[in-house]
Amino acid sequence: MVAVLITAVVHGPRALGATRPRRGSLPDGGPRPRAVVSPGLQADPPADRAPAPAGPAAPTPPAALAVRAVVPERGLDVDLTVAPGEVVAVLGENGAGKSTLVQVVAGLLTHGEAPGARVAVGHDDVSRLPPRRRHLAWLSQRPLLFEHLSVEDDVAFGLRSRGVPRARAREEARDALARVGAADLARRRSTDLSGGQAQRVAIARALVTDPRVLLLDEPLASLDVGVAQHVRGVLHHAQREHPRTTLLVTHDLLDVLLLADRVVVLEGGRVVEDGPVDAVLTRPRSRFAARLAGVNLLAGSVAHVAVPEPVRTVREGATAEPAGGTAGPIGAATAVAPDAESLAREVTVAVDGAGVRAHGTADEPLAVGDGAVAVFEPRAVAVHRTTPEGSPRNAYRVVVTSVEPHGPLLRVWGRAVDDDPGDPTAGATTAVGHDAPRLAADLTPRAVAELGLVPGERVWFVVKAAEVRVHPR
Q: Is residue 260 located within the same domain as residue 202?
């Protein structure tokens, strides 16, 4: 009996003729219930079975971006809405608030620094979320790659931080590198890359996580012209392949023309211009946009509007009331409304910060006191050493500030001064302020040499009123 009891304890029911329950069954022989997995979670695979390879995930649809950026210490106060998949180029002088706007969207400023900031991505308010949870990607001038990782692992880093298995993250990283033309760089270290190669890797790293919003803070500013052209093409192709809601901070006209759908110009932390690319570049309303577009712009207010008078005609024959005119007897003069080509109004603009005026034509209704800008191209400017004859309507005394190459021509820059043209003592003693209107004229090298145009010289810039277009601002 003692031996039987010891055997039963040591060897269990098997020694007494009982059978072991089947795998997957309960001790009473019933089937083992399946594990219940909550929606959105995934059960761990059995230890003896590798997880099934996941197919490529469908790209996240672009989301709208709404920003209320208020940073009192930096003077920024901006309301901005970006449509899903739209690329908005943010332009402005240094210190206008462009990078601060990007930092607000990315969540890089504390609530104390940006107390009134509100950021919404799609229907989600992300204002209180840390940067890593906003589902954004930020690309700046510096690639900021990890020196201790291979390029492949660097690109995969974002995926790994989200819990994607290593093998799958590396596979997606290689695909992202291939899309930006950098597949051959996968095994290299970031310290072995050129500037253009590193920026392409940074683009792949930004896009591989499929961000809902892409922030580009002058990503091409530090690259050579040829390299920047290639990287710009990479960004253009990526946007066409999968449109992403994008904020693009840049100073380069090519970035605007090739990548952007819309332009927003900041000045002193405020939006001073907002519109489609073609409208802003062909009809700029801010000095920065005008310089970017390569045209002269004089901003001020309307001082005078000359409405075209009706055309006087003599009608012979039966009396009848003409369209837009008044009835009269046979042979009487009749007032006829001007045709469409003569509807352009002659407008005089008093330029802000200078005692000069600009005379031009406007296609849109303007009244005295309205804000307006006068725009004309540098090629339309004639340069004179002496006071121009004939009393031209737009003649500006300027001090030459620089002469720069501009294709086959030379661009002469000058700032307008308030010299009295009849004062023989007016010379190089009058100071020219930084806020004085800045104008440009395009001349041939021969003309520049003959006129002796060097910085500090005082000359006249003359432009015909017919070359000046006036727009409301």
A: yes
Q: Is the dihedral of CA 95, 101, 103, 109 positive or negative?
A: positive
pLDDT per residue over 416-453, tens digit each?
886 544 444 344 333 445 667 889 999 999 999 999 99
Q: Is residue 170 within a helix (H) or strand (E), and if so which, with residue range?
A: helix 166-179
Give the domain extent around 301.
297-374
- CATH code for the domain of 197: 3.40.50.300
Q: What is the pLDDT of residue 391?
A: 76
Local structure of residue 132 (DSSP, 8 states): G
Three-state SS for 88-129 is: EEEEECCCCCHHHHHHHHHCCCCCCCCCCCEEEECCEECCCC
Measured CA to CA, the distance from residue 4 to residue 22 in angstroms comes to 26
Per the prediction, the chain carries an average pLDDT of: 79
CATH number for 450: 2.40.50.100
pLDDT tens digits, one per residue of 463-473: 999 999 998 87
Across 141-165, b (16+ Cβ under 10 Å) vs e yields eebebeeeebbbbbbbbbbeeeebe
**Region label for 324, one of left (φ > 0), alpha (ψ between -120 and 50) or beta (otherwise):** left
pLDDT tens per residue across span 45-98: 333 334 434 444 566 778 899 999 999 999 999 999 999 999 999 999 988 999
DSSP 8-state assignment for residue 140 = -
Residue 417 lies in a domain: yes
Do 429 and 339 fall within a single domain?
Answer: no
Measure Cα distances from 71 to 142, 201, 216, 230, 436 in Å.
Answer: 24, 32, 20, 36, 29
Residue 335 lies in a domain: yes
Paired with 458 in beta bridges are 399
Residue in 78, 80, 87 with CA at minimum distance from that of residue 66:
80
Is residue 5 included in any domain, yes or no?
Answer: no
Q: DSSP of 177-215, one letter per residue?
A: HHHTT-GGGTTSBGGG--HHHHHHHHHHHHHHT--SEEE
What values do phi and psi take at 119, rounded to 5? -130, 125
Listed residues 255, 270, 293: the one ending a domain: 293
pTM of the model: 0.68
What is the total residue count of the chain? 473
